[in-house]
Structure formats: structure tokens, C-alpha cells
């Protein structure tokens, strides 16, 4: 299960969260950032919950990709995998399964 929520981010704000050697994709002073949330039933690290903060869209010739400025996972094993195998800025976090609705 996953949710990918994109947002327009001011390019000048996004640059603070994207390495200086990467070229930001922008139009009219904005780039795309957002949040990616996922619950994996299986992964190289087993069952896993993850939240990724996307700092902006960057050029990765011949295409572009979203830059993960923060990654939160719910186990030490997933953090180690993210850091060592994928080079991600992973951190361990605790997630609450509570869902609230209004109305």
C-alpha cells in the first residue's frame, strides 16, 4: 500500500534540501516535492513502514527523479539497508496506525 502526494515547492526552499551538485528541475521558481508513504508486506528487510520526504525534482540524465531528502523507516534493519545499499538518508521512526476521520 502506498500514497504519493506531490506539492509545488519554491525552488529556493528546495535547494536547501538537495545536494548542490544536483540540478533542480524547476519552472517559474517552483519544483515538485512531496511525501511518499508506504507499507510493504515484504521487502529485503521484511515487513516495513516508510515515509519519504521528497525535497525536489532533480535532473538525472536522460530523465529526472524525485530527491529523497529524508527517509523514515520503522526498523533498524530497514535503516541499515537504506543507508548502506541505497545511499538514502534513512532514520528509524515509530509510526502510529491510528486513522482519524471527520464528519
UniProtKB/TrEMBL annotation:
It comes from the Eukaryota. SUPFAM superfamilies: Acetoacetate decarboxylase-like. InterPro entries: ADC_dom_sf (IPR023375), NDX1-like (IPR039343). This is Protein NEOXANTHIN-DEFICIENT 1. It comes from Ostreococcus mediterraneus. The lineage of its organism: Eukaryota, Viridiplantae, Chlorophyta, Mamiellophyceae, Mamiellales.
